[in-house]
């Protein structure tokens, strides 16, 4: 953080997003020691070990399927009563012998001294609690736009995304925004890169 002030005639916000966290005991303390937000990045570390994945959308299903290829068993923990990802992914998950889908469960605690040793989950409907002995938990529950520094000034939607028009203009003249921090529908790297280029062109036109 800095108190330095810069005068400018235009601003382009491309602050991106960050991984949504569970906010449960043990999550922060054991981050990078069994708590991961990227199965693609860290999954190989837990080959031939039991793991858990949290998230019933496409990211969670894909992570569970990837881990099923190398882990001994995979617990897929979802808040709803049904999976919400693509039908093709749902079918693969349901047909996997290595994946146990824990429906209507929430994670309440991540346990371990130096590394993850187990997690506790609780059923929304029955109150039943379970302790799963796993060596890693992959949290795939979505993204949060980095708009905390600007949300009081610009129009944002219910997802805290900056609302832009077709020319990447925000609710304040001279402020443009691009990428996953905005309310664009498609959250893909190639789309965000193109949006950044487009926003820069519109800002340049504004300054001309």
UniProtKB/TrEMBL annotation:
Recorded GO MF terms: oxidoreductase activity, acting on a sulfur group of donors, NAD(P) as acceptor
Sequence ranges assigned to domain FAD/NAD(P)-binding in this UniProt record: 3-188
Matches recorded under PROSITE patterns: PYRIDINE_REDOX_2
Source organism superkingdom: Bacteria
One Pfam family, short name: Pyr_redox_2
Keywords, alphabetical: Disulfide bond, FAD, Flavoprotein, Oxidoreductase, Redox-active center
InterPro entries according to UniProt: FAD/NAD-bd_sf, FAD/NAD-binding_dom, Ferredoxin-NADP_redctase_2, Pyr_nucl-diS_OxRdtase_2_AS
Protein name: Pyridine nucleotide-disulphide oxidoreductase
Source organism of this protein record: Halanaerobium congolense
